[in-house]
Amino acid sequence: MSGGFPGRDRRARRVDARGGRARFEADGPRVAVVGGGIAGLSAATVLAERGVHVTLYERDAQLGGRLAGWGTRLADGSQATMSRGFHAFFRQYYNLRALLRRTDPGLNGLTGLADYPLRHRDGGRDSFARVPRTPPLSALGFVAQSPSFGWRDLGRMNPRAALPLLNVSVPGVYEALDGVSATEFLTSIRFPEAAHHLAFEVFSRSFFADPATLSAAELVLMFHIYFLGSSEGLLFDVPREPFPQALWDPLARYLGGLGVDIRTGAAVREVHPAGYERVEVVADAAAVEQYDAVVLALDTAGLRALVGASPGLVGPAWRASIARLRTTPPFLVSRLWLSRPVAGDRQGFLGTSAFGGLDNVSVLDRWEGEAHRWALRTGGSVVELHAYAVDPARRRQDVEQDLVGQLREVYPETGRAGIVDVRHEWREDCPLFPVGGYRDRPGVRTGDARVVVAGDLVRTGLPVALMERAATSGFLAANALLERWGVRGETLWTVPDRGRSAAARALVALGRRTAGAG
Length: 518
Known about the structure:
Layout: E1 13-15, E2 30-34, H1 38-49, E3 53-58, E4 69-73, E5 79-83, E6 89-90, H2 94-100, E7 110-112, E8 118-120, E9 125-126, H3 137-145, H4 151-156, H5 159-162, H6 172-177, H7 182-188, H8 193-204, H9 216-228, E10 236-239, H10 243-257, E11 261-264, E12 268-274, E13 278-283, E14 288-291, E15 293-296, H11 300-308, H12 316-323, E16 331-338, E17 349-355, E18 358-363, H13 369-378, E19 381-387, H14 396-410, E20 419-427, E21 451-453, H15 466-484, E22 492-494, H16 502-517
Parallel strand pairs: 2-3, 2-15, 3-11, 8-17, 15-21
Antiparallel strand pairs: 1-22, 4-5, 6-10, 7-10, 8-9, 12-13, 13-14, 16-19, 16-20, 17-18, 18-19
């Protein structure tokens, strides 16, 4: 962090919290945070730092939510840490990084990967390693270097349909494009098929959804955050060790030092108003406690279930909107401990397209310490495969076998390696952002000052997505409660909240006026 900015982008937007006293000097209020993922941990951190008495409930045995990890013993007797798979920590994740800096000020627990390579089955490849990071040079540099998207392709684009990419704002992008699917939008702007697969379908599937069902607004927002609106670029960092050791164990110790009561293995079943000032939280074993406020930081299915079991919460219209929230199709993370190494020139991460169900390949021993030590000791390698938006009708065993076969096509040397052990993790708990679904997504504030919501499914009014949306919403939830009590909240940062070029913004405005006149 230099010059007061959280990264290299001098156009990053600072979002200040409401003013107030620095913290509670005497006995602060009691707040229940339900959910121990990124959103819940972010909210708990800010609240506890301000002198609030926080109880953190997490239904699983470990913290981290969708970035949790747990121990497992391999067939060779080795102890390993399994998780739900690779996550990229992009440099524009300012608020998530601010959370991690609580225990790692220099972010030394993260390491950068050299490239974000993308490969199509027909042989097409793209790379972002040498693409300039600052727009519009980023877009021009990509066109100049990409074998799948050249200057002629740029000339064939539909300029009017592509205008939304040049000036993204929130909630304006949802007002304009939430009624269109990502597939329809990509078709309308006439991107070449190869570029569609390599540069765009890969991004849209980061939401674990088929582009035909995904709101185009989310896809366009992704372009703004990662490519056209930010000068942080598309390269990213990854943890040097598994998630618990690198991220959550240190943060749990930090929160414990602030007096947070962390209760893992404790699912919250119901939340009810208790008079006009408090809320009642019902956890496992019928344990009932009262708090001054509650942060609901659950995944989509968990929030839906909890709200459905809490008929007095907020109001009927709000509860009905929560009931309409949906999750993505199943996805698979397969981790293989192989008896031989993959080729030395293989990247730590590779995005893939048209290799059946295979969406990406990670060679964990290239960057994760635990996997690297296993590979050094055994002479093998640790490889992870992801398959998103799997057809629910398919037999899971068939999908698992196909994924291993597709790995052997992408990296043929793995076909000569024995599988020392393998873990297949199936999940279907990520939020779906369907066409027209923005109106049903909850905001941080619910209309009841005692109840706030956080998570990557939440509308924040800011240009954030994925893990950064989870962290940002957690900070916003804490800020909403602190504002109510007259205590200063957390300062936030985001990528710029509009297009970087004044000329481009003027062109977009002219296009809208022309379309309206027509």
